[in-house]
Design goal:
heterotetramer, A alpha+beta, B alpha+beta, C alpha+beta, D alpha/beta, B: alpha+beta, Gyrase A, domain 2, Alpha-Beta Plaits, 2 domains, six-stranded antiparallel β-sheet, 11 strands, elongated, D: alpha/beta, eight-stranded mixed β-sheet, 11 helices, about 30% helix, about 25% strand, SoxG (chain B), TrmE/GcvT-like (chain B), Sarcosine oxidase subunit gamma (chain B)
Chain lengths: ~100, ~190, ~1000, ~425
């Protein structure tokens, strides 16, 4: 069971309190009607699924209820950092180095 | 440290029997209370404080209390305000009046959840049979309030003293919470 | 009741407390403090069971949790718990135990024929045979294999014991309470850290409880243990957990412990749990798991009476039991010599010490000489004799690459030691990579991956003083890392019990016919050195392949005894260094762990919360049948006077349409959407338009996912400009709320709107039927109920029975209907009053089944029944619910995808059977032909089917390919006993004009 | 290839089993192959086998970064069934079930396919509706599946607790009698041995590090730990690692890789005659020929390649098992492990050509790939050999995610009202 720092509560809590909501920074197109079928499929379904550092969305569903983002190493499952929703995506490459890959 | 619950906010419900009475831990159903979910941005906090009569806490996981009032930080834009049951209507209207000019949401959730009072030297131990967070005073000081889980059910937990806690759960989950607590306390009866 | 092998005095057993127990029905005695193994040995019993495959007689090999042979069943309360290790079972008065995997008895076992046939059963033999005749596999071969395999008999009855759970947090978790563990706990506790110390054994102390040839700070090791425990238990920050196995090391220093609470007690207090799961989050972990002794792989190394040397010493020093009268010691390392000396000092004849090494230390040799013990150097055991217990061993002298026979030595026990293997299981579970230590000839922990450090023997640091030193340092460093400070504990000094030298891996050479002898590598699974070599010969070159092909290392000790020997044999067969062959992964649990401990408190009604509505007790008192919907219990139907479900539902339906019915709708999800942008938010979430909905009015809302498929629906009432009361399906409530939060927080954080779950704020009583208004009117204040003032699809606030109320005029039945929302704790009072009022109007209380029939009459869909996640609004004829002028809503773009606009989609239709009495089966398929050949694609399926009292016939809804175009045509429902012809009709049946609900 | 039989076993017993040959070779890779399969699990090895056997191709290599059969093939709970809802799925899995029956004889390797029956428990009214829909759809499709009352379910599986007083009582079951289990390792080994015998090079410890494309965009070969290997066609059958490999060819996939745990108990004498699954309360159990109770747990909620999962997942699985089979509460877990399952949005696999000419992919089997091994391999071999999807594979395209023609086996589980 992972231990996750909630950037809003400022404390580490067990994974049980959280819900993982998949890859982060996949914004819903501002004007969906202007997208092609390919683009819509990409938004809905295509995922990076990296072996290494992933930026993903978590929700502290049984805590403060907020969504936030995290960088996590999918090989060790270690969290490298958490940041609030709306903050820019950190460079995963930099964290890849720190994670040793 | 004495219990910070000096008001009538969370008192044992005299109409209900205690759920558990042991030398080391007791569980009492709490009397009904007025509960209000307050949602707003920073612009509303001072206004809400004025309306409600306590500051609206901005430090995560803390509560502000006054006579017959408690305001719990539950999230960065979410608070639960608690007061005696009889004052609900007045509180709702005061809040709406004061917050009229700013975006906000005030919702009555008085009946959504029930509370029980868990206290005694083994209260923390008993809660940890289902609560996955560290309840040691160094990690969960008196006054801390949080939502978390009790085994498979969401709860709200407020520590009111070194050995006393308020546990709130949605109404239909309370039997599960108290049932498990009472069952887990069974071993305390053994020699 | 004599215990012929118990020594006169010594050991840690309570000689005053004599206990009686049975083994295979034989009554025996032991003492408090005995394990089953030590008590059996005290009674001279070595044969305790049979091996897995060849059913060979087996004895007690070890004194610890790694025991592969001595697995027994424990009988209690008329049932049996299988596969418990005799070396861990504590003897209590009345303990009943049985041996396993033998028939009819452990002394005479017909399964032993397998041993004779063993030439036919090499590793992996079953992959090569049993293929013909084909039908024999299921009927003959497999049942025989299954019956022959398995160890003990499974428990037969439900387990009545309880299991506990505790989440715990600490600064330093110390696993293992030998010298390193105790020292680490002392050092960490001294710093003020919160410490948990656990040990799988009943007593703390580990090897210190066996050690008699050393002193710590001038006292006996056992005394030092007692003193240390006194200090630790006096420290309020220390939790001491004996009988507690750290079995799983998970991510981020999450360690699972299994605490055994009552298994060792004769008459346990029923209020105590049998075992408890500790889920520990530790800032730092010190693993002090020790090392275990390695068996030697020589021919016939498995006879009862053959035992690890340190185990023999443990039985003597800790339990006061001699493992034999005439003991041969075979070793490759120094430590076993001490076992020989200790036994000799207690009057046991040492037949010889046979050391593989040409030059064991002089010091040891001179001690042996002083005791008159025969020493054979450069000597191996090449075989043993004795049927149910060893009676003699063959010795062989190493000569270059070969072995020369060196005679036979009579003995009644053989103690062996191939050296020591650090217990790296938990380190390995923590995802650390072990490294090969050439000088020790074994793997030891490498770099820590988590906040963890190994200490003492599990790190390959042997010798008592060195282990203590390492333990103190580990405890100090752990505390420093966890809380930033360390204490100043005074470090004890040990004298004696120094680290020994020596050790050997793999199969020992011998002079026997290799095809005729078995030298066991994995005792429990009967894997021999030959098997490992065969696997390599057949191309199994990865250690994982060898493990899986031979099953070596897959026994209940998870290969702790066998892995290194197997690895060495494989490496020689492959002609590769062991480091290139690699070690298999150690997985949790460290030792087998009771299922009950994982399930712990999730049992019965606590398996999952039982959510009850305010009417629950009332309808339960009327013998309602309930159905589970999510976690809720909902009244399904309420039979009267012996009615069956069909009769009850028919009566309920008729009564609702004739007068009125009362229904508990409290379980529906309810969300209060509040804020200046509330309408805008709903506009984006739901397909429907909301901005023009007037306060006081309601609208049916349809929710899609962004793929375009229906995921939920419900009525939404506008309470004020900035306030909506949204309802969802019961099962969808949590998902809809989470989905709304997701869009709100992450896509549209700029909107000034907040959502609050009010599902449990309100109890909801639905009153439906022509008399609904009459029934509720007396209770309502503050709302004009007249049809003009409060038409269908209205919402208003007032009071009901004197309590605040949100009243909806809505209908899911097609009748005049109201839904009374009152604060939950008033729900019971309001329900009781309404129930009385409904009864007075000759109305009825109805359940979900009736609700389903009534809505089907009207063709209202149920999400999850008419839809299955692949259905669009158009499919169910609900394009009317889509706001035509909306630029966007969740799902709009998805709906435009090619397959969602293509022809040939399945559409909702009504079906009427030609025979009105026939009710279709839900889920039945729809075809054009009456007798379609197998493989015919279906045209669709029946989603709902009921007998409709209102229509006086059966009705059905179905999703049918191009269904709307087929109205009026005949299709078929193929059933096992013939097809049922149906006519396609529009998907609504009753009061199509809606006159009744507008009444 | 030496024919395996009882006679052969007896003969070899006389020579102390010294004369058994290797089950497969350990060749060095050639510079070029017609077809390179990436991933030596059951699906990959089977693909190579059918390419050689049914399409007459010989110049084939299977590349494996670890040891063959070491991925999900060797880590699953070996459940075999074909009673899927949608016609497309039922056709695929039923194709597989037909191949399972006779696979031991075809491969001359006893894969221990044991048609002991798979029973899926219904616990709610909604479950009944869903399962009966399956039963009816399956009957029409020619797939065996039948509905049982709780009493009939108990008769088929005596340890089952059908008390009405448990939290989620059993209200019925769907039984597929031809469903069952097989010995997972043997499947990989049997295919490996048979493919090797037909000349397929199985190259272990040979990780693929890149997929090279020619100027025209088509596939050219793969970079590996053992150098560049030229290939006319490349088939990626890498389960949890598919995204990582396809990324090398510049293709993003509709996949997420999650940890999936499984566990076994200590071995006991026969106690459990069939396979029982409960999707509603998440429990899957059978007993292996060795006597271990084999139990499938759920997936963790996040992407991970760690091959480990959280204990809370195990807890939830075992509490469900203990509710259904309360006598097993005293049994003990012997070993727990994790695999990496690649999950698609509609929980159905992808067996398809890709936008890159010459590059094919077979993935997305989620938690249920083992059962499909022979069928998947068979239709994938056809797809690669003919450069055209096998009719059974055609619906399982990448294209469906664009058009919305999903084969959504998970969707039917939606609960409401």
């Amino acid at each position: 069971m992972l231990l996750i720092q909630c950037p809003y509560c400022g404390v580490e809590r067990p994974e049980l309190e959280f819900s993982c909501r998949g890859e982060a920074h996949i914004a819903r197109p501002a004007d969906p009607s202007a997208t092609t079928d390919e683009q819509w499929a990409e938004y809905l379904y295509l995922r990076t699924n990296p072996k290494g550092v992933i930026a993903e969305r978590w929700r502290h569903i049984h805590g403060c209820g907020r969504f936030f983002n995290a960088l996590r190493d999918t090989v060790s499952d270690k969290f490298l950092m958490v940041y609030k929703a709306g903050e820019p995506k950190p460079d995963p490459a930099q964290f890849s180095k720190e994670a040793g890959r | 440290m004495a219990d910070i619950l000096t008001s009538e906010l969370y008192s044992a419900d005299s109409s209900q029997a205690p759920l558990l009475v042991l030398p080391d831990v007791t569980i009492m159903p709490a009397a009904p209370a007025a509960r209000v979910s307050l949602r707003c941005r920073e612009t509303g906090l001072a206004l809400a404080a004025k309306a409600f009569g306590t500051p609206i806490p901005q430090t995560p996981l803390t509560a502000e209390t006054a006579a017959n009032r408690a305001a719990f930080w539950l999230g960065p834009d979410e608070w639960m305000l608690v007061a005696p049951e009889s004052q609900l209507a007045a509180i709702l209207s005061d809040l709406e009046t004061h917050l009229d000019a700013v975006p906000h949401s005030v919702v009555d959730i008085s009946h959504r959840q029930d509370a029980v009072l868990v206290s005694g030297p083994r209260a923390g131990w008993l809660l940890n049979t289902g609560v996955p967070i560290d309840l040691h005073e160094s990690a969960f000081a008196v006054g801390t309030v949080t939502r978390t889980l009790f085994h498979k059910t969401p709860i709200m937990l407020w520590r009111t003293g070194p050995d006393s806690f308020v546990v709130e759960a949605w109404g239909s989950f309370m039997d599960y919470v108290t049932g498990l607590l009472v069952q887990s306390a069974e071993e305390l009866k053994a020699a | 009741m004599s215990q012929p092998f118990r020594i006169e005095k010594g050991g840690r057993i309570d000689r005053a407390a004599s206990l009686s127990f049975t083994f295979d029905g034989e009554r025996l005695s032991g003492h408090a403090g005995d394990t089953l193994a030590s008590a059996l040995l005290a009674n001279g019993i070595h044969l305790v069971g049979r091996s897995f495959k060849y059913h060979r007689p087996r004895g007690i090999l070890t004194a610890g949790s790694e025991e592969p042979n001595a697995l027994v069943g424990i009988c209690r309360k008329g049932d049996q718990t299988p596969n418990l290790r005799a070396t861990q079972v504590e003897v209590y008065e009345g303990l009943e135990t049985v041996s396993q995997n033998r028939f009819p008895s452990r002394g005479f076992d017909v399964g032993a024929v397998n041993d004779l046939l063993s030439p036919l059963f090499p590793a992996g033999f079953y992959y090569k045979t049993f293929m013909w005749p084909k039908a024999f596999w299921d009927r003959v071969y497999e049942p025989v294999i299954r019956a022959a395999a398995g160890l003990g008999n499974p428990p037969k009855n439900p387990d009545h014991d309880t299991y506990g759970n505790l989440y715990a947090h600490c600064d330093v978790l110390v696993i293992g309470s030998g010298p390193a563990g105790l020292a680490a706990a002392l050092a960490a506790a001294d710093s003020g850290a919160r410490v948990i110390l656990c040990d799988e054994q009943a007593e703390f102390g580990g090897s210190l409880l066996t050690e008699t040839a050393a002193t710590i700070d001038g006292t006996a090791p056992a005394q030092w243990v007692a003193d240390t425990l006194e200090k630790l238990s006096a420290n309020g920050n220390v939790t001491l957990l004996p009988r507690t196995t750290a079995f799983g090391y998970f991510a981020q220093n999450f360690v699972a412990l299994a605490q055994r609470i009552t298994d060792h007690v004769s008459e346990p207090d029923p209020r105590l749990p049998r075992e408890r799961l500790w889920q520990v989050r530790a800032r730092e972990v010190v693993i002090a798991a020790g090392a275990i002794e390695r068996p030697m792989v020589f021919p016939e190394n498995d006879r009862p009476g053959i035992m690890l040397a340190e185990a023999g010493r443990t039985y003597l020093n800790r339990y006061g039991v001699k493992v034999g009268h005439n003991v041969l010691v075979a070793t490759a390392c120094d430590t076993a010599w001490q076992a020989a000396f200790d036994l000799a000092d207690h009057g046991v004849t040492i037949a010889a010490i046979a050391d593989v090494r040409e030059n064991p230390p002089e010091a040891l040799q001179s001690i042996a000489k002083a005791r008159g013990i025969r020493v054979e150097k450069g000597c191996v055991v090449t075989g043993t004799t004795g049927r149910k217990r060893i009676s003699a061993a063959l010795l062989g002298r190493l000569r270059g690459n070969g072995v020369a026979a060196a005679g036979e030595v009579a003995c009644d026990a053989l103690l062996m030691s191939g050296g020591w293997t650090p217990t790296v299981s938990l380190y390995s579970q923590s995802r650390g990579k072990v490294v090969w230590n050439e000088s020790l000839g074994t793997f030891v922990p490498g770099q820590s991956v988590q906040n963890e450090r190994s200490a003492g023997a599990c790190l390959g640091i042997y010798g008592l003083n060195a282990a203590l030193e390492d333990g103190y340092a580990a405890g100090e460093n752990a505390a420093k890392a966890a809380i930033g400070r360390s204490g100043t504990v005074s470090r004890a000094q040990a004298h004696g019990a120094d680290a020994g030298e020596g050790g050997i891996l793999g199969a020992l050479p011998h002079d026997r016919d290799p095809s005729k002898v078995k030298a066991f590598v994995d005792y429990q699974n009967d894997v021999t050195a030959k098997d490992v070599k065969l696997a390599v010969r057949e191309g199994m070159h990865s250690i994982e392949h060898i493990k899986r092909y031979t099953t070596t290392g897959m026994a209940t000790d998870q290969g702790r005894l066998s892995n290194l020997n197997a690895l060495d044999i494989a490496s020689k067969a492959l002609d590769k260094p062991v480091t290139d062959v690699g070690l298999t992964t150690f997985r949790q649990p460290y030792t087998p762990t009771t299922f009950g401990i994982f399930a712990n408190i999730s049992r019965g009604d606590f398996f999952d919360p039982v959510r009850k509505t305010p009417s629950h007790d009332f309808v339960a008192g009327q013998d309602a049948a309930f159905e589970d919907v999510g976690q809720w219990k909902r009244a399904w139907y309420l039979p009267k006077d012996g009615e069956d479900m069909h009769q009850a539902v028919a009566r309920e339906c008729e009564t609702v349409r004739k007068s009125a019915g009362l229904f508990d709708a409290s379980t529906l999800g309810k969300i209060e959407v509040v804020g200046p942008d509330a309408a805008e938010f709903l506009e984006r979430m739901y397909t429907n338009p909301w901005k023009k909905l007037a306060p006081g009015r309601c609208r049916y809302g349809l929710l899609l996912n962004d793929a375009g498929f229906i995921i939920d629906d419900g009525v939404v009432g506008r309470l004020a400009e900035d306030r909506f009361h949204v309802t969802t399906t019961t099962g969808g409530a949590a998902h809809v709320f989470a989905t709304m939060e997701d869009y709100l927080q992450t896509e549209w954080p700029d909107l000034d709107v907040w959502i609050t779950s009010i599902t449990e704020q309100y109890a909801v009583c639905a009153v439906q039927g022509p008399k609904a208004r009459d029934i509720i009117a007396p209770f309502v204040e503050g709302i004009d109920l007249s049809a003009d003032a409060f038409p269908h699809m209205s919402v208003g606030s007032g009071t009901f029975c004197g309590v605040p109320c949100r009243l909806f005029r809505i209908s899911f039945t097609g009748e005049l209907g109201f839904e009374v929302n009152v604060p939950r704790r008033h729900g019971k009072m309001v329900w009781d009053k309404l129930a009385k009022a409904v009864a007075e109007q000759e109305g009825v209380i109805y359940g979900t089944e009736t609700m389903h029939v009534l809505r089907a009459d009207k063709g209202y869909i149920i999400v999850g029944q008419e839809t299955d996640g692949t259905v669009t609004p158009d499919d169910v004829g609900m394009n009317w619910a889509i706001g035509k002028n909306k630029a966007d809503f969740v799902g709009k773009r998805g709906l435009a995808r090619p397959d969602l606009v293509a022809g040939g989609r399945k559409q909702l239709v009504g079906l009427l059977t030609k025979d009105p009495k026939v009710v279709l089966e839900e889920g039945a398929q729809v075809t054009k032909l009456a007798n379609p050949p197998a493989g015919t694609p279906a045209e669709g399926h029946v989603t709902s089917a009921y007998h409709s009292p209102a229509m006086g016939r059966s009705i059905a809804l179905a999703l049918v390919k191009d269904g709307r175009r087929l109205t009026g045509e005949t299709l078929n429902i193929p059933m096992p006993n013939g097809a049922i012809p149906v006519e396609v009709v529009e998907p609504f049946f009753y009061d199509k004009e809606g006159a009744r609900l507008n009444g | 290839m030496k024919h395996y039989s009882f006679l052969e076993l007896a003969k070899n017993a006389f020579s102390a089993h010294q004369n058994w040959g290797r089950q497969w070779r350990a060749p060095e890779p050639k510079a070029e192959y017609d077809i390179v399969i990436v991933g030596a699990g059951g699906h990959g090895l089977g693909t190579a086998y059918y390419l050689a056997k049914e399409h007459g191709l010989r110049n084939i290599a299977v590349l494996e970064k670890g040891w063959l059969g070491g991925g999900n093939t060797g880590r699953n709970t070996t459940i075999i069934r074909s009673n899927y809802l949608w016609e497309e799925s039922a056709a695929l899995y039923n194709h597989s079930v037909k191949l399972w029956d006779g696979l031991s004889q075809d491969l001359n390797y006893n894969v221990m396919y044991s048609a002991r029956g798979v029973m899926m428990l219904a616990h709610t009214v909604h479950d009944i509706q869903v399962f009966k829909r399956h039963v009816h759809a399956n009957r029409l499709a020619g797939v065996q599946n039948e509905w049982l009352t709780p009493e009939e379910a108990k008769e088929y599986c005596p340890p089952l607790n059908i008390s009405k007083n448990i939290r989620y009582p059993v209200v019925g079951a769907a039984l597929q009698r031809v469903g069952g289990t097989a010995r997972h390792d043997a499947v990989a080994w049997g295919y490996a041995r048979a493919a090797d015998d037909l000349g397929v090079d199985i190259i272990q410890n040979c990780a693929v590090t890149g997929i090279r494309r020619a100027a025209d965009g088509s596939v050219e070969g793969v970079d590996t730990a053992k150098g560049f290997i030229k290939a006319k066609k490349v088939g990626v059958v890498a389960a949890g690692h598919t995204s990582v490999l396809m990324e090398m060819a510049g293709i993003r996939m509709p996949l997420e890789s999650n940890p999936l745990q499984a566990l076994v108990s200590e071995p006991v004498k026969p106690a459990f005659p069939c396979v029982v699954m409960s999707n509603t309360i998440h429990a899957y159990i059978s007993q292996s020929d060795k006597g271990e109770l084999v139990i499938g747990a759920g997936t963790d909620q996040f992407v991970s390649y760690s091959q480990t999962g959280g204990i809370h997942i195990t807890n939830h699985t075992i509490d469900a098992i203990c509710e259904l089979f309360p006598m097993f509460r005293r049994m003990r877990m012997l070993r727990n492990w994790g695999g990496i399952v690649d999950v698609t949005p509609d929980r159905s696999p992808i067996i398809a050509k890709t936008p890159v000419p010459g590059l094919f992919v077979n993935c997305g089997w989620g938690t249920g790939g083992f059962k499909a091994t022979p069928g998947s391999a068979h239709v994938f071999a056809h797809t690669i050999a003919k450069d055209e999807p096998h009719p059974i594979a055609a619906p399982f395209s990448l294209e469906r995610f664009r058009t919305g023609r999903l084969i959504d086996e998970a969707a039917a589980a939606a609960v409401a009202h």
